[in-house]
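Lab meeting minutes (informal)
Scribe: AK
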Amino acid sequence: MVDDDEMSRRVVVHFIEKTSYLQLIKEFDNAIDAMHYLDEEHVDIIFLDVQMPEMTGMEFINALEKDIEIILITSEQKYAVEAFEKKVTDYLVKPIEYSRFIQAVEKAQSNVDIKRAETERRKEFYVRTDAKIVRIPYGKILFVEALADYVIIQTELKKHIVHFTMKGLTNRLPEDIFVRTHRSYIVNLDKIEALEDNSLLIGEKYIPIGASYKEALLDRLNFL
């Protein structure tokens, strides 16, 4: 939820809490802080105000690199055409009624479900490396390490050096399997053998855990 108007945020938060299949992850009063948060975290749906200082909702959409369902919120109809040109999921005009809110959410949730099903169907990706195109199943990946403008994809058998960014790869890998643990590392949750202080162990490799990533990592682990 991103809106500089606290009253508007309270209305949308109330609607979210009223809807059993929605969970509020975070709310922001400006788009810049929201953008920084999304550099490291993933959400399925964003409720986004159009008119905000410093960075508008439209500028936020232009800068966003992730595939996220966006429901725009504004007090004016005039942004509708531009909103749909940017392929937002839906467009809500203040004051928002719950029935209209649910209509927009159901459309967004349907799109999320389709994308999840597609991710489940595709359990691998292909990379170009050493003049070949190689298939890499998700389950074979141990971790990914940043290397300047490249990434090293370490699998159970070998490593592949690919011209790609960590940010781009984070968006491509399924979040139920992989987690970012450091600005330079993404790990397969199923391959973690142990945690020790500010690092984790996969095979014989100790991987650092960045301070800003530690809480999200611990939330994903099934502690007794």
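Next up, CB showed the second protein from the same session:
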Amino acid sequence: MLRKSSGREVSGPGSLDAFVFDMDGVLLDSSPIHAAAYVEALGALPIHTFQYSRLAGLRTKDGIRRILLENSIALAEREIDSIAAAKSKIALERTVRENPIVPGARVVLETLSRRCKLALASSGSAASVDAFLDCNGLRSFFQCVLHSDDVVSAKPSPEIFLTAFHRLGIAPEKCAVVEDAVAGIQAARAAGGVACGILATCAADDLEQAGADFIIDTLEDLL
């Protein structure tokens, strides 16, 4: 079900010219994998406070830094780099092995691609994005593919979405951004796009407070 969740005047998804999709938590049901990878990579540390939904959408190193801050743990940068690399390796190997693509994702992308331009804009690594696209044969649906190495500033910075809008050649207000995370919704709104929050990782209230224009239950709600 598609629900309007903000008071600003925006066009509905059915009348837009482009869709920009996040990957993890939107097209891939990978949030449990990433949560478990954080826990495993940080296993040697006294972590008492951990909530994955607060980290969703962030680069891994930024997520590690937030966890350490919330648990009052100070580490050298090289140690943070090592933990982040371990977390990414664990998550990538399990994601490739399990390939938890969201049911119906391929049909939704194929249907939308017949009438709109599509982009993929993920905070994930190049390796994780390439694995998702190639394992599922989805690359041809996207006119633009962006990952964490393509931008300087990660979500909630609007940079990745502004780059996607520019490459698609579509004005921000004519582009929907489909996100599961607070950081992603904040980035979409800051970029001027129509922010659609999908209920997968974060609660509806959190997505609405971040600025979501619409809330959807499933990808099919975009059709």
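CB comment: DSSP finds eight helices and seven strands in the chain.
No objections, moving on.
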